[in-house]
Amino acid sequence: MMLYWMETAIIGFWHILRMILSVKWPALFLGPFFCVHFGGFMVGHFVFLWSIFSGPWKARVHGPWDFFSQVVMGTGLWIPLIALFISHGVSFYLNFLKKSDILDASSAPPVMTVPNLDAKAPPFLRPLATPKGALAIQDLMLAPYRRVIVMHVTIIFGALLSQVFKTGKAAFILLIVLKTAADFASHARKNFRPAPPPSKAPVP
After folding, report:
1. How do residues 50-87 score in pLDDT, each as one tens digit?
2. Residue 122 has what DSSP assignment?
């Protein structure tokens, strides 16, 4: 459960880079807002995870250094963390930088859009207007919060299940089920969208 929480922080890091490269200077406003809002959820989740599910670790860990040395380094958790950081970095390059040609600023359009924004908009909003098919502003801001919802549900119902079954493993199993379902739904949404209806040929 702690590894899932840390992976969410890693995803947040790469998402901030994605935001900066996507929207350029508007990220000066969106970036701090995302850090405060998303970071608030991360802190809240950590407090609840540690309070409810830490078990004997609570008596052994008395500060950030104890947490790092005993939980992260002492249990070998740093190994999957490094692997996850590299994995998400590779995904960031292959699925964002390479596909959007963001490295070629002369040919790459911005990837953030606001509906109904045209040339009549104020100059400071025009960088947000993009061609059809660009990444919507809602998707850009809300994408990482799917993991927040999974952790929310895990903490609430996992605590109840742990009380019922008298073991914290119940919450861990719930997290596995929820994460698998969320990943499957995301994969299906991206790769199994129904084909658009064929356009009708003009009547001669």
Report:
1. 999 988 888 899 889 999 999 999 999 999 999 999 99
2. -
Total residues belonging to the chain: 204
Nearest Cα to 109, choosing from 120, 98, 101?
A: 101
What is the pTM (predicted TM-score) of this model?
Answer: 0.72
Strand partners, 136: 113
Rounded Cα gap, residues 162 and 175, in angstroms: 12
**3-class state of residue 136 by DSSP:** strand
Nearest-angstrom CA–CA distance, 82 and 86: 6
Q: Which tokens belong to 34?
A: 């995302």
d(CA 42, CA 36): 10
What is the Cα–Cα distance from 61 to 45, expressed in whole angstroms?
A: 17
| Residue 16 contacts residue 34 (beta carbons within 8 Å) | yes
Structure tokens at 131: 């061609």
Q: Where are the domains of the chain?
A: 2-190
Residue pair 162/53 in contact by the 8 Å Cβ criterion: yes
* Helix segments in 54-167, DSSP class H: 57-60, 64-66, 78-92, 98-100, 137-142, 145-165
